[in-house]
Input
Amino acid sequence: MKIKKILIHNYKMFKDEIINLNEGFNIFVGNNDSGKSTLLEILQILISGKIDNYSFERQLKASYFNYDIRSAFRLQLVQPDIKIQELPSIILEAYFTDDGNNSEYKGTNNELGENCPGIHMTVEFNPEYEKVFRDMIKTRDIYDIPIEFYKVSWKDFGDNPIVFRSFPVRVTIIDTTQKDYSSAVNKFINTRIASNLASDEKVNLARAYRNMKNEFNNNENVKHLNERIEKDERLNNRKIKFGMREDVLDAWMNEVSIDVENIPFENMGFGTQNLIKMELVFKQNSEKSNVILFEEPENNLAFGNMSKLISNIIHDDTKQVFISTHSSYVANRLGLKNIILLHKGKTSQLTNVDQDTMDFFMKLPGYNTVRFLLADKVILVEGPTDELIIQRAYKDKFNKLPIENGIDVMTVDSLAFKRYCELALLVKKNLSIVTDNDGDIQHNIIDKYKKYLNGYGDLIKIYYEKNEALNTIEPSIIASNSKNNDLIEKLKRVISRKGSMMNKTCEELIDFMTNNKAEWGLRVFDSDESIEFPDYINDAIK
Amino acid sequence: MMQSNNIVELACAGSGKTWRMCHDSICCDNSSKKMLMISYTHKGIYSIKKEYAQQNQGVLGKNIIIYTWFQFLLRELIKPYQRSFLGKICQVRSCDFSQLYGIDYSHKNSKEYFLNCNYDVKANHASEFAVLLNKLSAGAVIKRLEETYSCIYIDELQDLVGYDIDLLELLFLSSIKIYCVGDYKQATLKTHNPKSNKTKGGMYVFKYLETIKESHRLNIIKNNTSRRFISDIAQFINLFYLEDPVISIVECNEQAIGVFQITEDNAPKYIQFYSPTILKYDIKTSTLNYPSLNFGVSKGMTLDRVLIFPNGPLTDFLIDPSKKLKAPDRYYVGVTRAKYSLTFVVKKLIENKYFKKSKICIGDDEIDVLKFNNSNHTNN
Output
């Protein structure tokens, strides 16, 4: 059973949102506070009733309610004449695929009236407290959402209560952001390992442990000892027997330890712990289908381990995986079409990403796609020199670096330009490309980007040197600074180190610049004096 | 999905119908789907659970769901698609049994017709509501059931009345295998007070099902062999209903077995020595202050020995058993409980063609009794 969508009403930054989910991977990408972790949290609450391993119900806080709704409600409470029409409530719903195998959870008891299996969860006022509440309103003792009078309920879409223990979907959380160096072994065993065992495996371990105790009690030596005690020792004239203590069901967890190549598990690094936990989850052949929640896999994992982990995930299609990440590598490898972009409680999806583009980034996962997706506006350039020059040009004009205005200047291999154009069209992002004409405008620019320039308005713009003779940025810079002698002298000063360029000809200058691309760029960027920039660069930063 | 073959079993008291039902479900438990077992009362559910466990190492099966009739209606049929009628979700709460009698002034098929003000479903209209919701949801109610269950077992079929029968017909026509058992002679209870289908439900249910046998793919089986009681008791209870006589296949070597009448003054001795379970028609019948059960309460029980304090109609029946009782169902439940002996306490021992003078031992004592004699009348 896979989750096909979730509906969120009034939870934290989400006011009213329906998010369609992928059956395989779901990559939540967004800036800080955009709701990535909240989405993982919602899935956890819906499917396990828990939040951070504790019952959600007992952790209920007014801050779980949508901030706007909560402030509006609090405003009502300070009016001279309190008139409340509706108390805030939270609704969370998970819609599952209707494959005919889990119809006992099926029905139309959901906000959308769809006939499928699912979970409908509400946090709402419990009418049992109606009188107390009304009295407190009268005496003005209510200052905030009165969560102490609220009840939480989980029902399936057939309107029957959910029993999480027997619900056919299980959720596993792998959170690499949380550090837990608690010293108790059992806690590690329990939270990191035992909770990921299948229930029959757990039963078998518990049984083995009981058998072992039983064996001890029936051991010849113990029996012999008991016979002797029975004869010789009496307590209050009553018989005494010696044996292992009767124990609770999960007692075995306190007694076991796990070694990895002779190093106790609890002494291993956090990343390795997570890697092992992950392997356990993926090796599991449980009857229940699994939902895996994975918060920022790039944290606490070395790059090699992370890519190992990602391959593990990719090769198992029985699990539904939810990942929040800032890492382009993770996003590219798992497939850009699985990205769900978050921005202030709103979502958009990359479902329609073109297959070639997705394959391109999957094969070359080093490209900074996430950074691209999160920027307000992007300027793509071919090399570090172009990047430095544009940054400087922008700073000269606006007295700020472009990133301070949400414009991200990214250096990208020019082969990837068209791929980024595809992405820009998909997410409707303003994209400017600054590129060399390489001596053939028709071929290198007009023909190449035809597809993106016609019919998409101003979304994508290409900036290039109009004069084909100036085939790269170096001759262009020289040309735009050659209008009079002062300008060319200034350029020479800026590019020189200890006056090294002052006596060079323009051709020699171009030679030096072409052979020391990043270096001259840096010198321009760092210089106290400003030079002239070619028109196409000025246009690009307009 | 194809309609499947259904089984309707008319089974006499003590024929082991619950045993067969559980046995069938254990044998059929191989699909990934669940199986549902339904009885009208909580007591019926208890005996299904007990019987099932006995056949399965003391535990219930993983795929077995056991509900009362109203749990079934509410959880599986009404709640999932309540939106189709109410337009709102998660409204229906429970069942309201308080308005079974009296007049309901609500308009047919109005919200008030099906629900009280607390959104509890009125028991009298629950199965009607289920049938309506199935129609309004374009069959989604039954489809959901088909996807969930491979087989549904319904015990005490004779308790179903009114719209229960329409619902039953929908179930028969589904792809789920329906296996229902019952005994029209024990139609002492009914799920509600119906206004419709008066000749289709209750004690008439088997006769009605006979008429739709072909269209609904029913395999109707009669089972009149009792493993509960001795032959004398079987002969005696056949005096209550002439149709479908019960045959006993029980043999035993206990003392004082058979059907007897004893006088009130011998009752204390008899009770002390044989420790029978004491039954009566209802609370109005005196039992000399001995603790006792009403016939209705004893339904489904198997008891070693039974002592009955008869009320007026039953006393008349004992004087002349050829005169039939007007409503024999409840008496029938009472007299079909005992394995070895069924004894009536009467004021005077009056012989007739069925009951003849005899004696039974109570320890070293002997007391005068009337003993039911089947040998002369086996062919009557």
In short: The interface with chain A takes residues 32, 34, 75-76, 79-84, 89-90, 92, 137, 140, 144-145, 147-148 of chain B (CB under 8 Å). The radius of gyration of chain B is 23 Å. Chain B has 13 helices and 17 strands.
